[in-house]
Amino acid sequence: MSTWRTAARMERIVPFYVMDLLARAKQLEAEGRSVIHMEVGEPDFATPETVIEAGKNALYAGHTGYTAATGIPELRQAISDHYARSLSISVDPARIIVTPGSSGALQLVMSVLIDPGEEVLMTDPGYPCNKNFVELVSGVPVGIPVDADTNYQLSSTQIGDSWSDKTRAVMVATPSNPTGTVVEREEMVRIHAAVKERGGHLIVDEIYQGLVYGSKGYSALELADDLFVINSFSKYFGMTGWRLGWVVAPEAYVESLDTLAQNLFLSCTSISQYAALEAFSPQCLGVLEERRQEFRKRRDCLLPALQDIGFQIPVTPQGAFYLYADSSGLTADSFRFAYDLLEHQGVAITPGKDFGVHSPEKHVRFAYTNSIENMAEGVRRIQEFLSR
Q1: What residues contact residue 97 under an 8 Å CB cut-off, 6+ apart?
Q2: What pLDDT is attached to residue 41?
Q3: CATH classification of the domain holding 177
Q4: Which of the residues 203, 207, 221, 283 has an alpha carbon 20 to 30 A from that of 131?
Q5: Is 6 contained in some domain?
Q6: Which pTM value belongs to this model?
Q7: Are residues 306 and 222 in the same domain?
Q8: Number of C-alpha atoms within 13 angstroms, CB side, residue 321?
Q9: Edge to edge, what strands does the sheet with 245-248 contain?
């Protein structure tokens, strides 16, 4: 028997297909091909200049050592102040734990909450890594099929119907990836009640909370303090490569999360933390608001353009920067479609296979993280591909 074997859990942790597709797109570009990127959920805007300057200043000031595992006190306070200022929510900074991106936050939360064999309910389709975070701690991710009838979100009724004696937690994302839909406030109240009465935990992914269109948006922290809320500096704040996020946790779990963070991460990058302080400045927030409005314009341009060439998008996304499109009228295999589209037309989109097992072959995701001009060219190339 070979000694070169991986743990059994690796058989259940599936690849992140969009990253393979991105790698191929980069290879084509290196060969001189023009590629229109609508695959990766990364804003095309650079980190705001004031944040970059704050990072430089932190470097020159010698802020390059370890920090507390929970984050520098100034940043935890700044996040708390942001909740108070933008959403009128009082959050004790002691409940805020700064993490290496939202991925780090989810790894901590799953590790603290989930024992082997315990279930976490989540949407299908949903962000693919969420399932893998559960698998990593030998938990059981349970994908619940959702569609346009439920706004591609879990309902309290579905949670009740899917709950078992092994269920430990429910995870929702609002706005969501890949659909951009939100959980309405009234439904979130019902979801929280359904989870609480069954003795479970509610985990709410709010990394796109700042990117809501047509309304102010809200945070689940308005409703209760016995849930876990995940957020990030990557999406709204445009700091993807700085790898910084946070979790607001119930007070009873802060010490355990701190202990685990000490062992897994030691601390987040100190330069990133000091730079992130500037993200909450009025000047920076003004830039971010302009970008939010630009994302909305892009959504409003791309959505009808895709519908005009045969994609079905039954729900207008209320946030994030994604369109989850039914491609069944154009192809029977969205996975092959996405790869052929990249190879033949230089347009990169994400196949539904990345987001679950509920009709993935019928769906693709578009990220409107490119200019309106480039996306228009992308739509033209897709139309050309379809007319071959």
Answers
A1: 70, 71, 76, 105, 108, 246, 247, 249, 254, 257, 258, 261
A2: 83
A3: 3.40.640.10
A4: 221
A5: no
A6: 0.95
A7: no
A8: 30
A9: 96-99, 245-248, 228-232, 201-205, 167-173, 119-124, 140-145
